[in-house]
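Final paragraph of the annual report: two paired records, presented back to back.
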Amino acid sequence: MADEITTTQAAASSERPSERPSGPRGPRPGGPGAGPGGPGGPGGRKFFRRKKVCKFCTEKIDAISYRDVRLLQGFVAERGKIVPRRLTGVCTTHQRKLSAAIKQARNIALLPFAARY
């Protein structure tokens, strides 16, 4: 009798009433990102993206000075915009200090607000 209860409970737990195909038309053939060069395709994974490391943390730079224009220019795009963290790899605390230093350097005309045309 105990065996009957466990087998019926196991059968009931394996069947999910809310099991539906993913998406409105069912699962995609090959899975997400499957293409000729995608991770699921015949070529396999081609590129390995290295995790970006904060330049200031690795070089142990604590203070970011607004007077260091050469350093700050590396974090400003051609058009004059501050480059975001996800592109530069700078950590949150240093990105805040960096943006404050760039704004300070702009205010005293060491860095331009916008690009020249």
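The closing record of the year follows.
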Amino acid sequence: MNLKQVPGGELEYNTQREDLIIAEYGRNIQNMVEFVKATQDRTERNRLAMAVVQVMGQLSPQLRDVPDFKQKLWDHLFVMAKFDLDIDSPFPMPDPVVLAARPTPVPYNTAVPKVRFYGKGIEMLLKKCGELEEGEERKAFAQAMGNLMKTYHKAWNDENVSDEAIAQQMVELSKGSLTPYEGMSFRYEKLQGKNIPNNNPFRATNNNPNRNKNFKNNRNNNQNRNNNNNNNNQNRNNNPNSNNPNNPNYKFKK
């Protein structure tokens, strides 16, 4: 806790002082700015303001990589002076109204998808597919969307779904702009482990026939390594020239 001796012998607590405008610079910089404001001579006031800005730059080295580094320091000086500082600044004083303005709220998408496990992305893709012209690209796009929808349905509901049900959902979610082609069938696609390489001998999968063998060999190697270490320690203890005090043959040096 910062304490200050005031006339009369009483202590002034930090909570009794004026709030810091920019707390990152600390109380001393704020006092320097107040001293600059109280200086009557304009030439001296300009010199002191330049010195305060240099000290502020030393206290904030992270701002050196920011564009317009010097201008930001002068803006902070005017902010801490409450925009009441008459000096010859190399940069214009910032507008208090602009700095106090609140940012424009970010518009969030609050639309709820019709089918939650499909999500809003599936609806957008179906709409995009419906906007394509008739051709092979549209047909391939519709086939891929049907496969993806069937896969999502299986992953979330753990039940089989017919191609007719997927085709009906494609029409509903695309608002009638996409109609599956006649005779089109959809298939499931694996979502997990589709592109996972199978060259890791210690990965817990049933597709690797050498997994148990590799674990057994690794355990045997560790056991042999421990046996070798124990034999080395026993030989070291039985050596009369060993410097181990636990050795019964160890002779203390005189």
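The first strand starts at residue 3 and ends at 5. This concludes the annual technical report; the extension proposal builds directly on these records.
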